[in-house]
Specification:
The relative contact order is 0.14. With about 400 residues, the chain is of the alpha/beta class. It has 13 helices and 15 strands. A 6-stranded antiparallel β-sheet has the order 2-1-4-5-6-7.
Length: about 400
Amino acid sequence: MELEMERAIVILNYYKNNGNFISMIISHIELKNWRNFQSVNVDLRDRVFLVGPNACGKSNFLDSLRFLRDLAKAGGGLQKAAIDRGGVSKIRSLYARRYPDVEIAIHLSESNAEQPLWRYELGIKQRKGGKNEPIVAYERVWKGDRQIIDRPTKEDENDELRLTQTYLEQINTNAEFREIPKFLESILYLHLIPQLVRHPEAFATPGLSEDPFGRTFLERVAKTPEKTRKARLKKIEDALKLAIPQLKNLTDTKDVMGVPHLEAVYEHWRPGAGKQREDQFSDGTLRLIGLLWSLLETDSLLLLEEPELSLNSAIVSNLPSLIYRLQRPRKRQVILSTHSADLLSDKGIGGEEVLLMTPTPEGTQVKLASSNEQIKMLLEGGLSIADAALPLTAPPAIEQLSLFK
Ligand SMILES: Nc1ncnc2c1ncn2[C@@H]1O[C@H](COP(=O)(O)OP(=O)(O)OP(=O)(O)O)[C@@H](O)[C@H]1O
Ligand SMILES: [Mg+2]
């Protein structure tokens, strides 16, 4: 605990001294032997749409970024990040031959810049003869063109225990590249489940350090400083007015027990509209509130799982432009998985923003939609991603599903 405090203070001070923190995106990612991918090597834009059939690895792709966040966050680190995922043997791809390293490499850049500001590469293997714990096979950092970290170092070789930790998780080793762990630890992942927002008490899982599913969503709202909170709720209310016109006056309140709630006036046919709390809000209302809140909440990378769930198709088809408008001023990157043709029917989505995931007997292949000549032609001809690319993602024998007895 003391260490965590110390770490927080050091990071805080560091950023006070460097007030000009540049907002960055992950402009490139390489994965090797990560879950169902043998090899991934793609550029990423401000907005990224992960598209492909069920179980092709969309969530696994997002998890590689959550893994980096888990390395960098307070109370995280390599050992915990691996244990939380069932160990290296679960992370390492079943498609991998023998026991190669699991590898993740990223470039961090200013949005749309040519040259990355930072490059970070990590290779992970299992310690031989130990308890199969993960160790750093290599760890490398570049600042611009200059390599500033190259592990294993001599000290690492003399003391193997050092390799059980990455430099990302140690404030005394990452001073030179603190912008990287700082960026990574603020990555936000959202997969809001309305039932958990309504009934958080029924799903208490104390060990869970992350809350992607919204169990503590209302607490998060309540903990936000009042001015920011009110401003955000006002913005959300304005957006909700368009999507769910019956709902007015979105506010937060606390009940007699001090438990935070959201409240809105719900207009119906009877005179004198009634107040409703979140447990009466519809699934779509809650998911939209959660999505909008998250888009307004952070200035760093936002990972979204299937934001279309529970939402009416007219709202879904407006999500890409909504996300675009909210991310733009903050220069923030959004990476989302989706199955929705409505969402992908927005003609503003470019082929270079879409990662197509195709399962093969050698693991899932990941390609930019724009690298496929056929898709590129169709897009140039005025079709949307939904029409140009989505048909390619259907499993080959899917028609037979309707004949299933
Ligand atoms: N280490 C591994 N090696 C190979 N495959 C793995 C590994 N770990 C998980 N998988 C496979 O990855 C698949 C799940 O991928 P994931 O959950 O990312 O799919 P998805 O694209 O998000 O699907 P959905 O659209 O249904 O949410 C499963 O089939 C699982 O067996
Ligand atoms: Mg998934």
